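FORM 12-B: Structure-to-Sequence Request
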């Protein structure tokens, strides 16, 4: 079978056509995963980068802001590569800041503080409980290392793209709720 043209791929993504989305994932995800793993990343990070790139791509297609002057795969690879480079830069900056902090010996870290752990658990449970029932199911499976395919099957979703998008949005919503909670901000300030 002949690979779909750029136009067919763009149209298929715009219309959420399962065969097109499966073709994109089957064809291009292994390439992206290989690149990220080769560049100090993990499979989980590769999945997240690929998913974020697909969302960026979908949004550009939906807004008619995508004019390809190269092959679709080259464009998708460039988006993923740039996202990964940005992610690595953030990681390196955080690592550099950690190196500059003085090392304190025999000081139990925040993870050893039972009161802090209790506050964090309460905070997580509160916001997790506020999510929709679907998001709770999706994230429970995600936290228990279910694959996107397993989640798709369990949730009875049509395709992997939709499932990965839902997982990403649920995770993002949970993080946003926690980070915006006054208790989280207070705990963060106390840790400084």
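FORM 12-B RESPONSE
SEQUENCE OUT:
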């Amino acid at each position: 079978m002949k690979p779909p043209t750029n136009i067919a791929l763009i149209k298929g993504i715009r219309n959420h056509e399962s065969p097109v989305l499966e073709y994109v994932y089957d064809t291009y995800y292994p390439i992206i995963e290989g690149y990220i793993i080769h560049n100090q990343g993990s499979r989980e990070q590769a999945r997240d980068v690929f998913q974020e790139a697909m969302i960026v791509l979908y949004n550009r297609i939906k807004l008619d802001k995508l004019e390809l002057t190269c092959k679709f795969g080259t464009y998708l690879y460039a988006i993923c590569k740039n996202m990964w480079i940005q992610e690595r830069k953030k990681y390196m900056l955080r690592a550099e800041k950690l190196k500059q902090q003085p090392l304190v010996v025999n000081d139990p870290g925040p993870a050893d503080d039972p009161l802090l752990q209790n506050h964090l658990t309460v905070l997580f449970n509160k916001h997790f409980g506020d999510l929709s029932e679907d998001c709770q199911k999706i994230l429970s499976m995600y936290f228990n290392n279910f694959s996107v395919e397993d989640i798709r099957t369990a949730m009875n979703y049509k395709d992997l793209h939709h499932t990965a998008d839902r997982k990403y949005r649920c995770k993002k919503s949970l993080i946003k709720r926690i980070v915006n909670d006054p208790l989280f901000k207070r705990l963060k300030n106390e840790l400084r």
